[in-house]
């Protein structure tokens, strides 16, 4: 433990008798001093002894350090000597190695010609056997040495190719010529490869393939391998899945058998595409090509999609440098005859199918589609009839039918959606925008023109004139359905057409075509605003039938029990229904625009209607009650202008009941101060007591 002087002194005093209790009775300072002096002497003796020991150890350490330094110097000298010896040995080894290499080169220079001579002698011997017509060598008669025989025959065949023509003819005419043996041996090797493949002996297949690599029949060996690989591989109905499984299995094996596995696998894939897939595609398409366009297009899309999916799976394998181009060419070779005229078949089918869907719908309604005048005299007559009350011929009665069908629209959009999908998959990238535009044009023709536009035209022709007593306002139903349908049309435009044309010049063309369609429909919807004339006509009819002169000038002023007139009740009920119908049929700003127009016309009708009667005091009160009810009805419009108009009308009606002395005060009120004085005067004149001198004097 670390030495602490205070603790050491305390322990020493505690051990000394008479030194442990300072100031106590047993405390003996002399004895404690004596103990301290003795202990100091002992410590001094101990210090001298330890110092001598330290000096001795230092001397010993210095001596050993000198001996060690001397030993290290001796070792360094020995190491230098050993290093010199190693350098000398290395130089000697290099010299010997140079001699050995030179000797090896000399031996090789002698041995190589000797080996070639031996090989040549053996080949000459075998050549003589072929010339004599007797093959005696064991290498030709022993079937187990077919590999050695193949090597010899290959070399003899190359030699034979270099012989003069006359010698070559004599050599080839012998019964056992090398050419015949070459062919026989090649056949034996291919047969041996075939047998090994059937037995599943990969190592034997690899050996035979390596031998055949130098023969002309190597490609035939590959063909045999490809043919046998496909035996029993296409037993299910899904030829594409079978092909993928086969290629995956062969990909694992081909590297163990052939030295060029990517070439063999590519040849297998080419064989599958050009034989199996092409035959399968032809069987599936030719059957429907001329008889059933719908099934033909479905099959073409399905087969092309599955073929490209198979191609994507095959991209995982090593097929050489440019496998993408290789597989694309294979797909093109199968489908080129079908893709060249694909869009013509698509457009023809789409046109026929769309026309059939529409005709089937109109037949179900027992409706013969008629030609609606959209120009010239017929259009002029229709516009004049709608803008005026002139009887230029009866309107068309649609019997409440809008001639718009959600089912028809869904069917047309579904057919077009499938056409866009097929177009995206089957069209050449350079032709894709153009083909997509043609499909879009078909959709516009049959959905927008032949269906929606026809329904709008029919609805316009069915709008009754303003003086008609018919309450047929089915055009609003047409507007509602047309609006819903166009939202679906717009969704398909954005979801399915835009991705196909977004980066091409056809985008602006499609957007312009869509804009023209919208503008054309808006024009017809604007023409349909004359439905409001019919609504106002119905209100006029209700007021004419229900409003009586005695309503506002009762015979018994003190016995009026009603809060508002029956005409007012029926008109308000009718208006609320029409407002609700307009809100249901339209959306966006169109709702406010139409309701504002209807509200202004409604106000004008009530204003002019009130101008037709004379009012007693109680009748004036009843008129105020009617206008208050009309004002409640106007609140449903949620149009500030309409509510303001009825507020002003309500204030005007107060002139019918106010005391003569207060007329000027009422006329200068907030709501009436800005009105023309003639308007105020016209309302005051409606009072039954207007002709009294007092009233005339007060108002003047």
Task: Give a verbal description of the structure.
The chain is mostly helical and 700 residues long. It is built from 26 helices and no strands.
For the residues shown, what is the average pLDDT?
80
Low-pLDDT residue spans: 165-178, 374-378, 384-394
- Number of H- or I-type helical stretches: 26
Rounded to the nearest angstrom, the distance between the terminal CA atoms is 129 Å
Secondary structure tally: strands: 0
- H/E element sequence: HHHHHHHHHHHHHHHHHHHHHHHHHH
Question: What structural category arises from helix and sheet content?
Answer: mainly alpha
Total of domains: 4
Tell me the β content: under 5%
Radius of gyration: 57 Å
The outline comes out as flat
- Main pleated sheet: none
Helix content: over 70%
Oligomerization category of the chains in this entry: single chain
Which helices and strands, and how do they pair?
Blueprint: H1 5-15, H2 29-132, H3 138-141, H4 146-161, H5 165-172, H6 178-199, H7 202-212, H8 218-229, H9 239-257, H10 261-286, H11 293-314, H12 323-339, H13 342-364, H14 376-387, H15 406-426, H16 432-461, H17 475-501, H18 506-527, H19 531-546, H20 566-585, H21 589-610, H22 617-635, H23 640-653, H24 663-667, H25 677-684, H26 693-699
Helix pairs in contact: 4-6, 6-7, 6-8, 9-10, 9-11, 10-11, 10-12, 11-12, 13-15, 13-16, 15-16, 15-17, 16-17, 16-18, 17-20, 19-20, 19-21, 20-22, 21-23, 22-23
Offer a concise description of the structure:
The protein is mainly alpha-helical. 74% of the residues lie in helices and 0% in strands. Pfam families: Sec10_HB, Sec10_N.
């Amino acid at each position: 433990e670390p030495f602490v002087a205070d603790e050491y002194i305390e322990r020493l005093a505690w051990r000394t008798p008479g030194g442990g209790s300072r100031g106590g009775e047993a405390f003996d300072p002399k004895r404690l001093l004596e103990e301290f002096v003795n202990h100091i002497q002992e410590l001094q003796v101990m210090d001298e002894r330890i110092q001598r020991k330290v000096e001795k150890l230092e001397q010993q350490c210095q001596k050993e350090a000198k001996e060690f330094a001397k030993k290290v110097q001796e070792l360094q000298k020995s190491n230098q000597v050993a290093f010199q010896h190693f350098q000398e040995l290395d130089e000697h080894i290099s010299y010997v190695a140079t001699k050995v290499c030179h000797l090896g080169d000399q031996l090789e220079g002698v041995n190589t010609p000797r080996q070639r001579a031996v090989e040549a002698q053996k080949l000459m011997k075998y050549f003589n056997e072929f010339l004599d017509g007797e093959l005696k060598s064991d290498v030709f008669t022993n079937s187990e040495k077919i590999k050695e025989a193949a090597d010899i025959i290959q070399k003899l065949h190359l030699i034979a190719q270099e012989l003069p023509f006359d010698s070559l003819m004599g050599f080839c005419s012998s019964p056992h010529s090398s050419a015949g043996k070459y062919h026989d041996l090649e056949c034996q090797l291919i047969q041996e490869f075939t047998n090994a493949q059937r037995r599943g002996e990969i190592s034997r297949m690899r050996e035979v393939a390596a031998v055949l690599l130098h023969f002309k029949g190597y490609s035939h060996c590959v063909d045999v391998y490809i043919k046998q690989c496909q035996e029993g591989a296409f037993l299910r109905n899904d030829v594409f899945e079978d092909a993928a499984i086969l290629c995956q299995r062969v990909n694992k094996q081909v590297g163990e058998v052939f030295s060029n596995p990517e070439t063999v696998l590519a040849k297998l894939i080419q064989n599958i595409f050009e034989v199996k897939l092409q035959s399968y595609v032809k069987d599936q398409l030719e059957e429907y090509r001329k008889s059933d366009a719908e099934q033909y297009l479905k099959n073409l899309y399905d087969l092309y999609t599955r073929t490209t999916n198979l191609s994507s799976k095959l991209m995982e394998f090593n097929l050489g440098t440019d496998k993408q181009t290789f597989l694309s060419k294979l797909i093109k070779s199968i489908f080129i005859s079908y893709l060249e005229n694909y869009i013509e078949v698509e457009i023809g089918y789409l046109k026929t199918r769309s026309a059939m869907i529409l005709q089937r719908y109109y037949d179900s309604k027992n409706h013969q589609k008629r030609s609606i005048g959209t120009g010239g005299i017929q259009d002029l007559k229709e516009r004049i009839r709608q803008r005026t009350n002139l009887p230029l011929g009866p309107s068309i009665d649609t019997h409440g039918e809008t001639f718009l069908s959600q089912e028809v629209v869904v069917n047309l959009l579904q057919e077009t959606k499938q056409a866009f999908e097929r177009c995206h998959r089957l069209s050449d990238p350079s032709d894709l925008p153009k083909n997509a535009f043609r499909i879009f044009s078909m959709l516009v023709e049959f959905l927008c023109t032949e269906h929606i536009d026809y329904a709008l035209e029919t609805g316009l022709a069915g709008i009754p004139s303003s003086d008609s007593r018919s309450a047929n306002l089915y055009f609003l139903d047409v507007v509602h359905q047309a609006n819903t349908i166009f939202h679906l049309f717009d969704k398909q435009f954005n979801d399915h057409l835009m991705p196909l044309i977004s980066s091409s010049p056809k985008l602006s063309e499609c957007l312009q075509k869509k804009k023209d369609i919208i503008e054309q429909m808006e024009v017809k919807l604007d023409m349909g605003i004359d439905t409001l004339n019919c609504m106002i006509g119905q209100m006029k009819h209700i007021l004419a039938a229900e409003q009586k002169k005695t309503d506002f000038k009762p015979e018994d002023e003190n016995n009026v029990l009603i809060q508002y007139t029956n005409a007012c009740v029926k008109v308000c009920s009718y208006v609320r229904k029409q407002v609700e119908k307009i809100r249901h049929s339209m959306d966006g700003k169109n709702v406010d625009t139409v309701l504002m127009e209807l509200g202004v016309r409604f106000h004008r009708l009530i204003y002019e209607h009130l101008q037709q009667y004379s009012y007693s005091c109680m009748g004036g009160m009843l008129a105020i009650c009617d206008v208050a009810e009309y004002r409640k009805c106007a609140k449903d419009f949620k149009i500030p202008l309409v509510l303001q108009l009825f507020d002003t009308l309500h204030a005007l009606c107060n002139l019918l009941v106010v005391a003569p002395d207060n007329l000027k005060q009422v006329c200068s009120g907030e709501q009436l101060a800005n009105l023309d004085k003639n308007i105020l005067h016209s309302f005051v004149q409606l009072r039954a007591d207007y002709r009294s001198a007092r009233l005339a004097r007060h108002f003047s």
